[in-house]
Design a protein that fits this description.
It is a single chain. It is globular and about 45 Å long. It has ten helices and five strands; from the N terminus they run H-H-H-E-H-E-H-E-H-H-E-H-E-H-H. It is an alpha/beta fold. The longest helix is centred in the N-terminal third of the chain and has 19 residues.
Length: 243
């Protein structure tokens, strides 16, 4: 039998417990959960740089080269901001695949009217970040990006997919062979289209095709030293392409 005193105590206990429940912290969102949420909200993530694109256009800033890519390109600007001096615009988005970049080519590249675009893509296609992809699908998307650039009279620099012995977020996946095969095609396609191919592997890769020690913090994403090595390769290329 529940007495009035027992009821009072239960209510008091509940009143004391409620604030604790109210202030309980939600479970931390995992990378996969955040990625799925962002894909659903804006598949190509065109909104990421919209405000900065508008700022550049409003100010009529001169753009020499736009860097289109994934986390490796995003990390380049984040870790080496001095390299992105006026005229160099970073448009990398972590986790992105070539179909996402293809959608962004107009707002994030062509609309800015750069003299050149540096495209580094393919790592996350191999990883299947937006679903399973064949190499032909990757090639088609790169063809599409180059076609957009050429139509808008933008010079194209096609970068090699950086070396990686494995992807930490895709354990057990074979990476060496698809990276090698896609890079062979990118080099050929650059020559066929009058684009410039820039190969970072001699500066970054060991004999097995993995990142050299000290040049990546997880075997994929370059450290500051890794980006400095890339810059030594790219700087003379930019001088040649931009004149």
């Amino acid at each position: 039998m529940i007495t009035n005193e027992m009821t009072r105590r239960l209510m008091l206990g509940g009143a004391i417990a409620l604030p604790a429940l109210a202030f309980a912290q939600p479970a931390e969102e995992t990378w996969d959960q955040r990625w799925a949420r962002e894909l659903k909200a804006d598949f190509s993530m065109q909104g990421r740089y919209r405000a900065d694109n508008e700022r550049i256009l409003a100010a009529r800033e001169k753009v020499d080269v736009v860097f289109m890519g994934d986390s490796i390109t995003q990390g380049w600007r984040d870790q080496r901001p001095s390299f992105f001096r006026p005229g160099r615009v970073g448009r990398g988005i972590s986790g992105q695949t070539t179909p996402q970049m293809l959608v962004r080519m107009i707002p994030d590249v062509a609309d800015l009217k750069p003299r050149a675009v540096h495209i580094m893509a393919g790592t996350n296609d191999i990883a299947g970040n937006t679903g399973p992809m064949t190499q032909e699908m990757t090639r088609d998307n790169i063809r599409g990006m180059v076609a957009i650039a050429k139509y808008h009279k933008i010079k194209v620099i096609l970068a090699s997919i950086p070396p990686a012995a494995n992807f930490p977020w895709r354990p057990g996946m074979n990476t060496l062979r698809p990276i090698r095969e896609l890079n062979q095609w990118i080099k050929r396609y650059a020559a066929q289209t009058g684009s410039t191919y820039v190969d970072y592997h001699p500066a970054l890769a060991d004999a097995a095709g993995a990142m050299k020690p000290g040049l990546a913090n997880d075997g994929v994403h370059p450290t500051v030293a890794g980006y400095e090595a890339m810059e030594r390769v790219l700087t003379p290329v930019l001088k040649r392409v931009l004149g």
